[in-house]
Write a structure and sequence with these properties.
Elements lengths: L16 E3 L6 E5 L1 H5 L15 E3 L7 E5 L4 E3 L17 E3 L4 E2 H6 L1 H12 L5 H4 L13
Antiparallel strand pairs: 1-2, 2-3, 3-4, 4-5, 6-7
The protein binds zinc ion.
């Protein structure tokens, strides 16, 4: 799962997990590249030597945290994360702009995304703040 758009030559996030220092959820690692595509003032980011993880707990304010427990919260990034926001307009799929309400009401949206992932037309590693495929965030 989630390997739909791994890029050749990129350092793949390892599948190691680490507990979010705030909510305790087991979180998957995320590439530095992903963080730089979402954090405010990426040019000021000084923690490039640490491994970061993405907390996907909807109720947790933490987006990224590092092995040294450096924390990046929602207000530190420039992307509204659908699963962490109340707004129906917040995005679930960042590659193709599918909002929460689209995902909930239009079956074609998910079918479209599934087709794109199969032909590697998506760009989850940079577009999705999790660095991974969005399909797991769609309603079942
Ligand atoms: Zn958390």
């Amino acid at each position: 799962m989630g390997e739909c758009c791994s890029l050749e030559g990129e350092i793949k996030p390892s599948n190691t997990k680490r507990e979010c220092p705030i909510c305790g959820d087991k979180s998957l690692s995320v590439p530095l590249k992903t963080i730089l595509h979402h954090i405010n003032r990426a040019w000021d980011f000084k923690f490039k030597d640490q491994r970061f993880y993405y907390c996907r707990n909807a109720k947790c304010d933490v987006v990224y945290f590092s092995t040294a427990d450096f924390i990046i919260v929602k207000s530190d990034i420039r992307t509204a994360i659908g699963i962490k926001e109340q707004s129906d307009d917040a995005l679930i799929c960042f590659c193709f702009g599918v909002s929460k309400i689209d995902a909930a009401t239009d079956k074609n949206a998910k079918d479209f995304v599934i087709r794109q992932t199969k032909t590697s037309m998506c760009s989850c590693q940079t577009a999705n703040p999790s660095g991974r495929c969005c399909l797991k965030d769609f309603p079942k």
